[in-house]
Amino acid sequence: MPKTHLFDLDGKIAFVSGASRGIGEAIARLLAQQGAHVIVSSRKLEGCQAVANSIAAEGGKATAIPCHIGEMEQIHNTFAQIREQFGRLDILVNNAATNPQFCNVLDTDLSAFQKTVDVNIRGYYFMSIEGAKLMKENGGGNIINVASINGVTPGEFQGIYSVTKAAVISMTKVFAKECAQFGIRCNALLPGLTDTKFASALVKNDAIRNYALQRIPLKRVAEPSEMAGAVLYLASDASSYATGMAMNVDGGFLA
Ligand SMILES: NC(=O)c1ccc[n+]([C@@H]2O[C@H](COP(=O)([O-])OP(=O)(O)OC[C@H]3O[C@@H](n4cnc5c(N)ncnc54)[C@H](OP(=O)(O)O)[C@@H]3O)[C@@H](O)[C@H]2O)c1
């Protein structure tokens, strides 16, 4: 029996934000393994270049392009560069996000609020607009937004971050509905607690970790690579009828 090609990404150009480490790096590596040419992006070029080099050393195709998604000018410049260098985009993974303040909602600092909204909402929104415009020119594509379980049920002391993740789930539905006519699908991944630098304050703190584990049926924190398979599904033809979906990969937390 022949193997399925439903998960093949040969010839596809994929952009992954926040791909210099953590969940984004795991996603970039898997998409490259499946044949995509991956644009590895984050604010700092060195980290992206290291991941791109390591993908290339394993026989994959990758290019590093830095982009701070909280800066509108950088978003525009990045897409100008993608257009010039590749002429197309098939897969956009909006993964880079920020959560600068861990506090009771009443102590929310205005600059932390603004930064969180600028990166997690405005950044995802305009990355999606630029990405969808390019996809539309080539007959379609796929947008995957990395949201969070916090977008469904807010994380304690993660007020504005949780609000932005709820916005990402809503944004996913907006783009799914309005861009389907252009052959573009848009879905969200909702990771549960995953062992990355981002979550280190939660994972490394015994009290918080144990509290979280009580509410996770699988009784463990996820590895970044455990998020990548879901993104491959959403980015490939395997999910050809899925759009506007929010996919929980959370060890059963939301159940
Ligand atoms: N870890 C978890 O438990 C968890 C749970 C639910 C959802 N998530 C979501 O998963 C996604 C990835 O998180 P992670 O845990 O993998 O984080 P991470 O390991 O800290 O990685 C974050 C990545 O984003 C980049 N980045 C940060 N701010 C950026 C900006 N403004 N513009 C562009 N790139 C930026 C970082 O590189 P530079 O420093 O070079 O920019 C890095 O590559 C986020 O959307 C997060 O909300 C994580």
Task: Record the SSE blueprint.
Layout: E1 13-17, H1 22-33, E2 37-41, H2 45-57, E3 61-64, H3 72-85, E4 91-94, H4 110-137, E5 141-146, H5 159-179, E6 184-191, H6 200-203, H7 206-214, H8 225-235, E7 246-249
Helix pairs in contact: 1-8, 3-4, 4-5
Bound molecules: NADP nicotinamide-adenine-dinucleotide phosphate.
Describe the overall structure.
With 255 residues, this protein is an alpha/beta fold. It has one domain: NAD(P)-binding Rossmann-like Domain (Rossmann fold, 3-Layer(aba) Sandwich), CATH 3.40.50. The chain is built from eight helices and seven strands; from the N terminus they run E-H-E-H-E-H-E-H-E-H-E-H-H-H-E. The chain has a seven-stranded parallel sheet with strand order 3-2-1-4-5-6-7, sandwiched between helices. Helix 1 links the parallel strand 1 and strand 2. Helix 3 runs parallel beside helix 4 and helix 4 packs parallel to helix 5. It binds NADP nicotinamide-adenine-dinucleotide phosphate (NAP). NADP nicotinamide-adenine-dinucleotide phosphate binds next to helix 1.
